[in-house]
Design brief:
By secondary structure, this protein is α/β, with parallel strands linked by helices. The chain is built from 14 helices and 16 strands. It has helices at about 20-35, 85-95, 105-120, 135-150, 160-170, 215-230, 245-255, 270-275, 290-300, 325-340, 345-355, 360-375, 380-390, 395-415, and strands at about 10, 40-45, 55, 60-65, 70, 75, 100, 120-125, 155, 175-180, 200-205, 230-235, 260-265, 280, 300-305, 320-325. Strands 3-4-2-1-7-8-9-10 form an 8-stranded mixed sheet, sandwiched between helices. α1 (about 20-35) crosses α12 and α13 (about 380-390) packs antiparallel against α14 (about 395-415).
Length: about 450
């Protein structure tokens, strides 16, 4: 790849390994594919326990675990300007050309995009979740998102529903928002070599046991399904504050022998849990995309899911049964799925998923967004301030003040430690192979 086309990307988010989740997987696999396509990719996140400093992962992926500790739900405490010195140093040391922030709930993402725009870098933002409009938390989050997205060059959403949600929450022009779905590592999620007997139907649930993931809905659905279908057994993987309710449900209905509670399941063991079942049950109340559905389908499971958010966009109709997020409709959907099981071929479903979803396809589409962002016109602070001013009568003025202070602090840092005094890190070019899918996750470092 020529130097003119080689992107030098800094991925920023509070959510990265060793924490596991959809955002973490997305950043990791996207970074691996971009590295294989010849780009330079660096990840910046906060410290996890004693994991601080610079670490290297599979494929030469370099990760800066900056010495900030998580404050709430793996997020760092908002500092506004506290991350500017260390981000500036990383951007100059690594000779970065573009900053890519992930997840609206990430404090580090918002601050990095703000600082990067102050320093004249092109920025891209990916939103991975859906948020409401009425509750106090969503109102505050949407205002923060409006501030951040007022000056991004391009944005990415993982589904069309997510795009509509992001545009409505942030006021961002729809022309600046691209839809690029998630994908699944089909090399890691393979079906069982032999088809399972249908004498006993196993329904698998792997999810964080929280309200948003529909844990309360499971409490209503599982006992009734067990009553209607004596040959059904449930396997529930995951942990969270709602686990107590599920444990109480098992004891109340005396179905301990038909509902196995596995607790938290490491990502490397998810596939072994999935292939022990016939049906995957997703009870989320809100979902932008849901990678768990892709992983289950890649393992050959028929999916039953709530019809929420971007879920209807994920799989073809013959691979998923959708239901409204109410107990009766979910119970009927499980019954329909059980009648469909004889027509399901796990190996064929796996091959279809392999053709439908590829991380290399995601990476190549993301490349186009980067190209588009780098072609955007350079603007000074005075040209950018009107966009912040339009964010609200009072909020707009506050946002402008924050950006002016940030601009002055950046110039002060340039005086105290000029950029030419920061030594650039020499690039180490790792062997990469075009069109080669990343191997299964190897967490090194």
């Amino acid at each position: 790849m020529t130097e003119q086309k080689r992107h030098r990307i800094l991925m920023v988010s509070d959510f990265f390994y060793p924490n596991f989740g959809g955002v973490e997987n997305h950043i990791y696999y996207l970074s691996q594919c971009l590295l294989k396509l010849g780009h330079k990719v660096i990840v910046m996140t906060h410290a996890y326990g004693n994991r601080s400093g610079v670490r290297y992962m599979t494929g030469g992926l370099k990760v800066y675990y900056i010495p900030w500790k998580p404050f709430l739900m793996q997020n760092t405490l908002p500092t506004f300007f506290g991350t500017l010195p260390i981000l500036r140093t990383i951007l100059i040391r690594e000779n970065i050309s573009l900053v890519h922030g992930h997840q609206a709930f990430s404090t580090l993402c918002h601050e990095a995009l703000m600082h990067a725009r102050t320093m004249g870098y092109k920025v891209v933002f990916t939103d991975h979740s859906l948020y409401g409009f009425a509750d106090v938390g969503s109102i505050h989050m949407n205002k923060v998102l409006q501030f951040t997205l007022a000056d991004v060059n391009e944005a990415i959403c993982v589904s069309h529903t997510s795009k509509e949600n992001t545009v409505l929450r942030s006021g961002l022009s729809p022309e600046k928002v691209f839809v690029i779905p998630n994908a699944v590592d089909t090399a890691m999620f393979k079906p069982a070599s032999e088809r399972l007997s249908r004498n006993e139907i196993v329904i698998v649930v792997i999810s964080r046991l929280v309200y948003r993931k529909g844990a309360d809905l499971l409490v209503e659905v599982i006992p009734e399904v067990c009553r209607l279908y004596p040959n059904v057994r449930f396997i529930i993987g995951g942990d969270g504050p709602k686990r107590v309710r599920l444990e109480e449900m098992r004891e109340k209905h005396n179905i301990q022998d038909r509902v196995d509670m596995l607790g938290a399941v490491p990502h490397a063991q998810v596939q072994s849990v999935l292939i022990s079942g016939h049906i995957f049950l997703n009870s989320s109340l809100t979902e932008a995309f849901c990678i768990a559905i892709l992983e289950a389908a890649s393992c050959g499971l028929l999916t039953v899911s709530t019809r929420v958010g971007g879920v209807p966009e994920v799989l073809p109709d013959d691979m998923i049964v959708l239901a409204e997020p109410v107990p009766r409709d979910m119970i009927n959907a499980v019954g329909k799925a059980m009648r469909m099981l004889p027509m399901i071929d796990p190996q064929m479903m796996h091959l279809r998923m392999k053709s439908l979803y590829s991380w290399f396809d995601v990476a190549k589409r993301t490349e186009l967004v980067y190209d588009h962002a780098l072609r955007c016109t350079d603007e000074n602070l005075l040209q950018r301030l009107p966009r912040y001013l339009s964010c609200g009568a009072w909020a707009g003025k506050l946002f402008c003040l924050v950006m002016i202070i940030n601009f002055l602090l950046w110039h002060l840092l340039n005086v105290l430690k000029p950029p030419e005094e920061i030594e650039e890190v020499p690039d180490f070019v790792y062997p990469h192979h075009q069109h080669e899918e990343p191997s299964r996750l190897e967490f090194k470092g």
